[in-house]
C-alpha cells in the first residue's frame, strides 16, 4: 500500500507528503474477511515504521455474492467492469450497488434483479 503510493507519486513527479501525511484522512473499506489485517496488522506495520496517518475510518462490509455464489476472479465468476459499462450506465450500476450494499448482511448480485432495477427503478423513476 504505502510503497504503491510512493511509486505513484514518483511517477507523477509529486511529493508523497502532499498526499500521505498526518493531516490526511484515511478511509479503509473492505470485506469482513480483511478485518484482522486492516484493523490490527496494517496499523501495527505503519506504527512500527512510524508512518502516519494510521487508519482513521474503517468501514467493513459483509460479502457480495454473484447469483448466490462466491465471487471468484480466478474462476471467472465475477462482473467485469469493462463489460458491464459497455451495456449499462455507470449511474445505474452505482444505484443498484448502493441499494443492495452488503452493509449489515451478505447481499447478492442477481442479473435478473439488476435488470429489473435498471429498467423499472432507475430508468422508470429517475430516467
Automatic annotation (TrEMBL):
GO biological process: methionyl-tRNA aminoacylation
Keyword Membrane: no
Source taxon at top rank: Bacteria
All copies of domain Methionyl/Leucyl tRNA synthetase, residue ranges: 1-126
Pfam family name, one: tRNA-synt_1g
Record's GO cellular component terms: cytosol
Keywords: Aminoacyl-tRNA synthetase, ATP-binding, Ligase, Nucleotide-binding, Protein biosynthesis
Gene Ontology molecular function: ATP binding; methionine-tRNA ligase activity
Family annotation (InterPro entries): Met-tRNA_ligase_1, Methionyl/Leucyl_tRNA_Synth, Rossmann-like_a/b/a_fold
PANTHER family associated with the record: METHIONINE--TRNA LIGASE, METHIONINE--TRNA LIGASE, CYTOPLASMIC
Protein name per the record: Class I tRNA ligase family protein
Naturally occurring in which organism (per UniProt): Streptococcus pneumoniae
